[in-house]
Write a structure and sequence with these properties.
Strand order of the largest sheet: 1-2-3-4-5-7-6
Order of helices and strands: EEEHEHEHEEH
Shape: globular
CATH class: Alpha Beta
Helix content: 25-40%
Number of helices: 4
Distance between the termini: 52 Å
CATH architecture: 3-Layer(aba) Sandwich
Number of strands: 7
Strand content: 25-35%
Radius of gyration: 16 Å
């Protein structure tokens, strides 16, 4: 049976792990409350979810299911606090945002135990499609308000 990689917890919002191929990943959550200033009741618990390769050659990366298991383990740890909210924004700088979305979707649907709800949206910013995903615990006391705020954020016209 596969297990997640060993996580080095830097703090409650920052983790690092190294794969069997020697690729080092950094997974972290950043405050994103400023994007939800119109929703002060929920804003203080909203973070972006980020995954960065900090060392190693990802071009040589083989299909490593333990990476997905490890990412989902970090998400599980984050949501031990039911009222936390994470938003995953697929980086579009190299035009690989759709590939990132597909990979994250695969990991999520394969390893999620059903406690985390995923809502996908697409924002258009200066003509660029920004794929983003809301993750929240099904027991979050502000579930409906958060979902509504996330949809409103994505419906904004960013080209004005």
């Amino acid at each position: 049976m596969l297990h997640p990689y060993h996580l080095q917890e830097k703090d409650k919002l920052t983790y690092q792990f190294i794969t069997d191929q020697g690729i080092s990943y950094f997974i972290y959550f950043l405050d994103y409350s400023y994007m939800f200033d119109d929703y002060p009741l929920i804003a203080k618990r909203i973070y972006t979810f980020n995954i960065d390769v900090i060392d190693g050659n990802v071009n040589r990366l083989m299909n490593d299911e333990r990476i997905g298991l490890t990412v989902v383990e970090v998400i599980r740890l984050f949501f031990e606090e039911f009222n936390n909210v994470a938003i995953y924004i697929c980086d579009s700088l190299d035009n690989r945002q759709l590939a990132r979305k597909r990979k994250f979707d695969l990991w999520f649907w394969k390893y999620n135990d059903g406690s985390i709800i995923k809502e996908d949206e697409l924002a258009l910013v200066e003509g660029v499609k920004i794929y983003n995903t809301l993750l929240l615990h099904r027991n979050n006391e502000h579930f409906d308000d958060i979902l509504q705020a996330f949809k409103a954020l994505n419906a904004r016209d960013y080209d004005k």
